[in-house]
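Regression test attached.
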Amino acid sequence: MASSADGNTADDAAASVPRNGLVAVVKRDCPTCELIEPVLADIEARGSLTVFTQDDPAFPEAVSARLHDDDLGFSWHHDIETVPTLMRFADGGEAGRIVGWSRPEWESFTGLDSLGASLPEHRPGCGSLSVDPAHVDALEARFGSSGLSARRVELGSQEDAHEAMFDRGWSDGLPLVPPTAERVAAMLAGTSRAPDEIVANVAPDLADCTVEKAAVNAVMAGCRLEYFPVVLAALTAVCNDTFNMHGMLATTMPVGPVFIVNGPIARQIGMNNGINVFGQGNRANSTIGRAVQLIVRNVGGGRPGEVDRAALGQPGKVGFCFAEIEGAADDGAEGSDGASWDPLCTDFGFESGTNTVTAFPGEAPRSVVDQLSRDPESLARTMAAALNAIHHPKLVLGFDAILAVAPDHSRVFIDSGWTRDQTAERINELTTRPGSELARGAGGIAEGVPEFLAEADLPKFREGGLHLVHCGGGAGLFSAVIGGWVNGEVGAQPVCVEIDPWR
Amino acid sequence: MSTVVLDPTNEAAPAHRERVTRPDSLDGLTVGLLDISKPRGDRFLNRLEERLTERGLRVERYSKPTFTKPAPVDLRHEIATKCDVVIEALAD
């Protein structure tokens, strides 16, 4: 806030700008400004002049009508690029300006003769502090058209910023990046959308989340700005009645949104689809899902122990996001003939190569080991046996699943010409079992399907409920199962959305 | 130098609503029984209905379309309009 040596504030400063008259903007750390101090005093003595000083409020001492532009607001709002700048105001508006020092220019501009007679005739000015790279982001955030409107929270000067954010309940348990206005403004450069645009209505509090609030949480999660369109798209994927984020929070089951990114954007932003694909070590994978979960926590109010009633939870609820191997050119993914599988987004009607994010209501991944199967039928039987165990071996049709197939396993299918759909279809056949084995009480286990289904053959998955995803490191005869949550209209459905509209 | 950060929450101040005072007696009141559609919730509520009806109370039965989603606004409104107290069954 601008203030004069005797305590005038920015508002006073604004009021001090004459409707008609001269205004100069200077800083002490500019030799040209120091050089022309006598000229400024001369102009003030022979008429009137208001001087805004950017750095030292005591400068220029020879001028009495001196105001400190300490927040650089005057300089920013008047697009000052060089100091000294001399401006003329007429009828409250700017009527002209000159920059640097040039005696003929200053004499002509002011209508005063013999200005700075003892000074050199010309001197260039210096850069204005308001365009200094050290300040420009903060000024843009504060005064610019970035439109940031979130409440400013001033942390105590003795408070540790990281501890303060934990104390306010904003954290998922891990440290947060402080969401300063500068960082949020930078994050907003990752999307063409306006900060005040509503992205989604977030459960459980049914609160509207603006692009700005999403950016605040994305900053806290540790996202880079190029991830931001994926965060926004992922947020829209979970905040709807189809995905049912509210139910996923409220359930006692151990599930949360699992995000799978398809399309060239995954590679462009450096996502991992290979070694340790579900694990740590990749910033995009680790922070995109986390940003969405922080939005659910902070904007939606979904917190464990409150609306989140999970009995056990799962570690992926901090944030679970990864990319799929796509196309024969991807590392280690192709079959020997260069063929590959269609990506996950094709299950949802998108063309291969579309930038999409799919939200799947999922539990933690469980490993499937098969080191010996070299023909697809044998391997499909292994997959079926592993998938049957999801949630309970005797419960069927109620839960979808992702089968994440790593390259050493996918190669077995692809080399035999099994497409992704054919592989899923065979697994669906192999996971269909007689109801008599699944009924309540069968096998000495009380849990199971209702007795009236005992006469039917029952598939483990509803139609379209099994999704194959191609990912993982190039060595290792493993796959993984990610079980779903209550599916269909009564529960949650996976949702796939396009990312590009959010870029 | 203090740090200024942007508030990541929805900045809404929740409206505070007092709970309706518990009645001293159920005599003459209408009791709503809300089944959230979890398996076997109906068994619990059937028994409650028997016991409440034996005491001469009026009972209204309701059920949510699915236990995974909040009760629809219309259903909540109907219960609030027709019932004096409500018992919600959470069962498995």
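Expected vs. actual: identical. Chain A has two domains: 10-143, 161-502.
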